[in-house]
Every structure is written in C-alpha cells, then in structure tokens.
Design a protein that fits this description.
The protein has 519 residues and is α/β, with parallel strands linked by helices. The chain has 19 helices and ten strands. Helix 2 packs antiparallel against helix 4 and helix 6 crosses helix 7.
Length: 519
C-alpha cells in the first residue's frame, strides 16, 4: 500500500540523526535512558529549573549599577546562593542545546507539517524570546560583559540612549536603577512569554508530556547540582562606563554576536539579517513541501460507528471527539473527525472494533488484503508489519519481500487492530512480527505504546485470548536497525506453544540483540 513519500532532505537528515543516536543507544544500554528520545520533556524540566532558580535570585535582587554587581558578588560568596546561580546559568545553556536537538529530531522525522504547524511555529517563535531573555540576564549583573552587551545594543539601535555618556549621566543623578529595572522587567516578561509559548506548543496534544519520568528527574537534578557545585560561574570585572569593556568569557549560545558587533571591519548588520531570515524560513517550513504526495486524512463511516470512544481516547492529537448521536441509531455517541487536527498516523484505526475508520485508502480490511496477497504469492511466509520510519530507513530495501519474509509498511504500527495479527497468523503466516520505533521515539507519540498495550492485552481493544499461543512478536528498535532482524530465522525458535511467546521485547544496540520473554 502506498505511503506518503518523504523528500530527500528529510530522509538524509533522519539518517544523520540515527547515526548520531546509535552510539548513544549503545552507551546507555536501553532506549528508556536515551536522552534523544526525551528532548521535549527534558527541555521543559530545564525551563522549570531556570524559573525556580530565577525566582530565588529575583526575590533578593537589588537594582542599580553598583547594587546589582554587589548583589551578585555576595551571591558568589554564599555557598547555597552560588549553587542556585550556577544552576540558573547552566540550565539556561542546556535549555538551548536540548531545544535545538528537539527541533532537529522533529525536522528529521517530518513532524512539523499539517496539523503540527502550531507546535512547530510556536517552537520557532521562542527563538528570539529565549535569546533575549538570556542576554538581559547577562545585562543584570552589570559587569564588563553587561556593558559590552549594552553598547552593542546601542550600536544596533543607533539611538544613543544606552551610550556610555548617557548611562554615566544617569548614574550621576542616581537614576541608574531605572535602567536596571527596565532590563529586569524585560527579563521577567520574556521568561513569562516563553512559558506561554511552551503551553501553546503542547496545546494540541492529548496527554501532553510536560516532564520526563521520575528517574530522569532525579538524574537530571543530580547532574545540574553536580555541575553547579563543582563548576561555579564566577565573576567578571565590574563595568566601568569611563572606558571600553575589557576581555571576558563569551557564552556563544547567547552572546555569539558580540565579536562581530565590535569588529571595526565586519558589518554585524548582515549577521542579524541572516539570522532573522533563517528563523523566518524555519517558521515557514510547514508550508514548504518536500513530500511528493500529500498525507491523507481520516474519514469515519458514521453508519458503522458504535460510539465506543476508543478512537477519541487513543488519538494523540485531539483529532477525534465524541458527540451525542442524533440520527436515531441505538448508540449514545458518535465519533466526529477533525481533519485540520489529523496528522495521518492512523492510530484510531487500530482502536476501532467496527472497521469504521479509514486513512485514505488504508484501513483494517486493506491491511488484511495486503497480507493475504503476500501470503498468496509466498505461502507460509513470515509477515512483518512496520511503520513509515522503518520503511524509509532500514526496511526500504526489503519491502519487495522474498519467499520467507513479507514486509508491509504502514503509516504507524499504532494503526494495527490487535486481532488482525492473530488472523494473519491463522490464515497461514509462519509468524507475525510488529516492528516499530523504540519507547518514547514514536513519530506519532504513542503508536508503539498503544500497539504494545493492545496486543499484550493491557489496553482496549485487546487481542483475543485465542491468539495467546500464536507466534506473534513485538520489536521496538531504531529505524536504521531493521536489517538486523528481518532475516533472523531463530527469533521464534523454541517459543511456539508458550504463553511467554506472545510478547518478546528486543533491544538492539549496534547489532547486538537482547531477547527477553515476558509473561
């Protein structure tokens, strides 16, 4: 069955990301502790650290050129306050790095088009508030670095309001606190704006994941505290308005523009024009097509809908809602699709007992027909059901199949109705495998989790008990490692007739597989 075709830039970027992630998987030993799979929740955790430590510092902050610098000096001489300040600084840098990785992964997985445009655009819209919040944070210290930032801003604006003579005059009149107060208010408002943008970023998600699991929270807290304790931020010399700023360390994540701003030859205006153009282009990506075919939208056959609510519950993107039924049929509710929110994952198809949902030309009956067609040409073949990411990467060269293994690619394994795998097996398949992405790395957020829950009878709709002893396996592996499993003839050996066989989780790291039977 035809899938939406991904463009070459998307395929190339995902292959690069998978190459980068592969050694990380090997080092950490389990996908549940691969930081690449948790970049979104980790970024929000870091923002929470920034907010909490920032509130602590603001509560005691003093405004004024001398007062602000002396306050930071006292902070550096108090152990607890010094740790808080360092945590604020390091979390701010880590937030930028993790957010960039998060954006790159979404870009590589094509998770920014269609209904996902709001999440993508709100993320891109955070670029300048995050940067400016970091810059104003550095300004509040009023050291030589803060003076350099202020002079650079004044040169860009060409207004002279923040020139050294004007600031010196304000200090002489005792009005220097006004400037610092304005910077402080800007810093706080920008931070609040980032918080609002994060809320908008997640607004269209069902069961939005704000924070990672507890073991991540504990581990990240230990790391942030450890770095903050053993690597204090330190101080830069106090700003002197009567001379040019001296040398100081530069945070390239926030202050990358300073070298160009003070270069007498280089025109920093072009840096800003280029950056603004690049960010604007990134914001427009959802409407710039690299796909050769458009993604279909779900369609619900209202006559077949029983109002069970499972599709609406399982949809990760709020694309289906339940409304009271008014057509006289016996069911209380009816499912209503919202095409503008649909990302074409098809997870709702796997939740539908009545075969009432289709995604373009893909539905439970068409998946069944595809499997029967393959079994007709290759009786007793092993049927592998996999997702688009695997099809684009590791599984692509195996889609034509052979006499032993037949691969069927779907938009997401979450669209597999659980009894379908049992029916395929009893129709003559030697075995059935469902191969999807690792935990927390599904391109559609919850497809692998819902498929696992349904087939292991932990989630409605459940696989029927009559299929308990059938050779059915679930594999959650990185998309570029598909080839390591597709021809593994010993994978099912010795398992037939055992209830343990129903669920086999395989973790793959650089070609090494760990097979664990779970009752």
């Amino acid at each position: 069955m035809a899938l939406p075709q991904r463009g070459a830039p998307s395929r190339f970027l995902e292959r690069v990301m998978l190459i980068v992630e592969r050694p990380v998987n090997w080092i950490v030993g389990a996908p549940q502790v691969n930081p690449f799979y948790y970049t979104g929740p980790i970024a929000i955790f870091l923002f929470a650290v920034i907010s909490i430590t920032g509130i602590f510092l603001v509560l005691f902050f003093q405004v004024g050129f001398d007062s602000s610098y002396l306050f930071i000096s006292r902070v550096e001489h108090q152990p607890l306050a010094r740790i808080v300040r360092a945590a604020h600084r390091y979390a701010s840098d880590a937030f930028v790095i993790v957010s960039i990785l998060h954006a790159l992964r979404l870009l590589a997985q094509n998770r920014f088009r269609g209904a996902r445009w709001l999440a993508w655009v709100s993320g891109i819209a955070m670029v300048f508030p995050v940067w400016l919040a970091g810059v104003t944070g550095y300004q509040l210290i009023w050291d030589e670095r803060a003076l350099a930032i202020t002079v650079a801003f004044d040169n860009i604006l060409r207004r002279g309001a923040m020139s050294a003579p004007n600031l010196l005059a304000a200090e002489g009149k005792g009005n220097d606190w006004i400037f610092i107060m304005i910077v402080l208010l800007a810093h706080l408002l920008l931070s609040a704006l980032i918080g609002v943008a994060i809320w908008v970023h997640l607004a269209r998600l069902n069961r939005a994941k704000w924070l990672p699991e507890n073991y991540w929270l504990i581990g990240l807290t230990v790391v942030v505290l450890g770095v903050s304790i053993f690597a204090p931020v330190g101080m830069v010399a106090k700003a002197n308005l009567q001379r040019a700023p001296g040398s100081f360390p530069i945070d390239l994540l926030y202050l990358f523009y300073l070298p160009a701003a003070f270069d007498p030859i280089f025109n920093s205006t072009w840096v800003w024009i280029g950056l603004i153009a690049f960010v604007a282009l990134c914001g427009l990506l959802p409407w710039l097509s690299f796909r050769k075919t458009a993604s279909p939208k779900i369609a619900i056959d209202k006559a077949q809908c029983t109002g069970c609510t499972l599709c609406a519950v399982d949809c990760p993107y709020k694309a289906i809602t339940m409304e009271p039924r008014t057509d006289g049929r016996p069911h209380k509710f009816i499912a209503i699709e919202h095409p503008d929110l649909c990302v074409a994952c098809g997870i709702c198809i796997g939740a539908c007992d009545g075969n009432a949902i289709a995604l373009g030309n893909v539905s439970t009956p068409t998946i069944w027909n595809a499997a029967m067609t393959r079994l007709k040409h290759a009786p007793r073949a092993e049927i592998v059901l996999t997702c688009e990411r695997h099809a684009v990467n590791g599984a692509q060269k195996f889609l034509s199949g052979d006499a032993n293994v037949q691969v069927i690619a779907l938009p997401c394994v979450g669209m597999i109705y659980p009894d379908l795998v049992g029916r395929i097996r009893q129709a003559g398949a030697r075995a059935v495998r469902v191969i999807g992405c690792p935990p927390e790395d599904c391109a559609n957020r919850e497809g692998n989790a819902w498929a696992e829950g349904r087939i292991t009878r932990q989630r409605l709709p459940r696989l029927r008990k009559q299929y308990d002893d059938e050779p059915i396996a679930l594999l959650w592996i990185a998309p570029d490692t598909f080839a390591n499993f597709w021809c593994d003839r010993n994978f099912f050996h010795g398992q037939k007739g055992s209830r343990n066989f129903l669920y086999i989780r395989v973790l793959l790291y650089l070609g090494e597989d760990i097979v664990e039977g779970i009752t």
